[in-house]
Amino acid sequence: MPGFYMSNFEGMMNPGPNGAYMLALPMPPTTPIPLFDAEDDTGKFVKAMAMKRDKVLGKNILAATDYYTAEEVAETFKKVKPEAGGAFMTIDKDTYKGFMAKAGMPDFAQQEMYENMAFMHDYGYFGKKSLDESLDLTNGQLLDEKPTTLADFIGKSRKWKDLK
Fold first, then answer.
1. CB 91 within 8 A of CB 24
2. Burial of 62 (0-12, 13-18, 19+ CB in 10 A)
3. Of 86, 113, 118, which Cα lies nearest the Cα of 102?
């Protein structure tokens, strides 16, 4: 099961009123989010599952590099792109759904997206399961290659290539 796509942040991290980039979501800043670089890491997980079939049969593989809190996402963005800034803000349901409406999303999809974000804090993206079994690189349990970190993703993002 893939984690939350890091590429989602390319549409979510936008300049705020003062020009600094901001992430605004309907969740507390301490909400853990399992992040996954679908473009670069899908093959790493598929290869591992194909090559180590006996170890993964009957198991749920949680494809993510790590859990980052919503606040850590903004802080990491600011570290990688210091001139662009980076801050997190918790917003309410109506504000979040308003952003979705402006993007042309229908009401039912706005509600589903809101619930996905709002309930992540209480119930967890993966039901608050650990990523240890899926990421045990030291024992070669599954992955042979390290998945992309959030900092690496931000640094290589084509959308943010001109930001410093």
1. yes
2. buried
3. 113
Q: Three-state secondary structure along the chain?
A: CECEEHHHHHHHCEECCCCCEEEEECCCCCCEEEEECHHHHHHHHHHHHHHCHHHHCCCCCCECCEEEEHHHHHHHHHHHCCCCCCEEEECCHHHHHHHHHHCCCCHHHHHHHHHHHHHHHHHCCCCCCCCHHHHCCCCCCCCCCCCCCHHHHHHHCCCCCCCC
Q: Is the CB of residue 61 less than 8 Å from the CB of residue 49? A: yes
Calculate the average pLDDT of the chain: 91
pLDDT given for residue 90 in this prediction: 96
* CA 49 and chain centroid, separation: 22
pLDDT tens for 64-119 read 999 999 999 999 999 999 999 999 999 999 999 999 999 999 999 999 999 999 89
The two tokens of residue 48 are 């591992």
Q: To 10 degrees, what angle do helices 107-123 and 93-102 make?
A: 140
Tokens of 68: 């980052």
What is the Cβ-side half-sphere exposure of residue 149, based on CA atoms within 13 angstroms?
7
Tell whether the torsion through CA atoms of 72, 78, 84 and 85 is positive or negative: positive
